[in-house]
Fold:
Amino acid sequence: MAESVVAHFHNEPGVAAISIGVKEFMCVGALPPHDHPHVFLDMGEAGETVCPYCSTHYRYRADLGSAGTDPAGHVFHEIAAPA
Structure:
C-alpha cells in the first residue's frame, strides 16, 4: 500500500496570510515547542481556509507546488529523534 505525505506548514513569523501549493495540509502554528496541535485542513473548492487554532489564513496557489510558500520559509520539517 502506498502512503502519501501530507505537507505541514508553520507560521512562526506570525504573518496574516500564507499562500501554499496544496489544498490538503497540516498547520502546526509556531515552531516547537510553541506549536499548537497539528490540525489537518482541507480547502476544498474554496481555495482558502483559516486555521482554527492560530487564525493563519491559507490561500491555494498551484504554481507553488507542495514545498513552496509565499512568503517563503513556512514549510515545516519534523526532525527525527535520535535513535
User: Anything to note?
Assistant: The longest strand covers residues 35-42. The mean pLDDT is 92. DSSP finds no helices and seven strands in the chain. Residues 8-70 form a domain with the HSP40/DNAj peptide-binding domain fold (CATH 2.60.260.40).
